[in-house]
Amino acid sequence: MANIDVDPKAPIENPSPPIVNGKSTNGSGAHSDEAKLNATTVASFKIGYLDSAGRLIEDIYFKRTTYVIYCTGKSTGTQILVQYADADDKGTDTKQIAALAELIPLRNRLQSLLADIPKPDQYYAQIAEAFRLGLEGKLDIAKQTLTDAVTEVQNLRASAGRNIYINQAGPIAAAVAAALLLVSAIFLFFGNAQFAKAWSPLAHLLIASGAGALGALLSIAISVRTRTVATDGDDLSIRIDAGLRVLIGVLSAAVLYLILGTGVMSQVKIGDMTFNPGAIVWQLALLLGFAAGFLERLVPDLLEKKAA
Description:
Blueprint: E1 19-20, E2 23-24, E3 59-63, E4 68-72, E5 79-83, H1 92-100, H2 104-113, H3 121-135, H4 139-189, H5 193-225, H6 235-261, E6 268-270, E7 273-275, H7 282-294, H8 298-307
Antiparallel strand pairs: 1-2, 3-4, 4-5, 6-7
């Protein structure tokens, strides 16, 4: 008897509790409420029994005279496993192991991808079907079945990641832009002319920073639409990446305004437009900030050029 995931010579990590007087114990001599029987042969495999590694058999997809394809761990992490032919069926189990060797990595990959997928049962059924095809001599079809399933689940995860990305970046960018633009409007338009003139540099800086958040949001939206945004991490890393892109847009816009406002660079050229430090008004600050947020490499490239 051999199991697809267990070396017959290796110690069993979770052995089944010994049966005493028809009842199983937990290893300390205490009896459980219900005895769990061990499935020791293909014929003895039944739902509710324990396999050779002490795992509860929770579902059986296929049961033939020489193999069983079954499911364990629904509460902790579903696994689709195979019980090979019995030991007295000489050589059959060895052939079965060889037949499924190429499917195991695909099975493992698919099971890992299914961790965060809602309603994954259909994919577990596909794994079982692929194992059945492999054991029945149809290895190419079995491999294609698992490969297609992996691709489909990857697309589902990527779609979910894009939704998380835009749902995270949108509110952050909108909130930051609204707060900064509101404060700048107070400085420029809700006081006397002398007050507005005194605070106009700070107001322009805030306008540029707020516009940088909006420029970053537009860049993110285009990336999401063209499927180029990074969605290969977990949900937390996707949220952090989205927030960082907005932060980079805000900081880049502020730096670009300061570069022009302080005269560190006599002029900055973006496309056919040239911006001079003495010509900054609120409209120009808005445009500069948006460009800096949208073009992530604009400010780093300017700083590198200045350093050189």
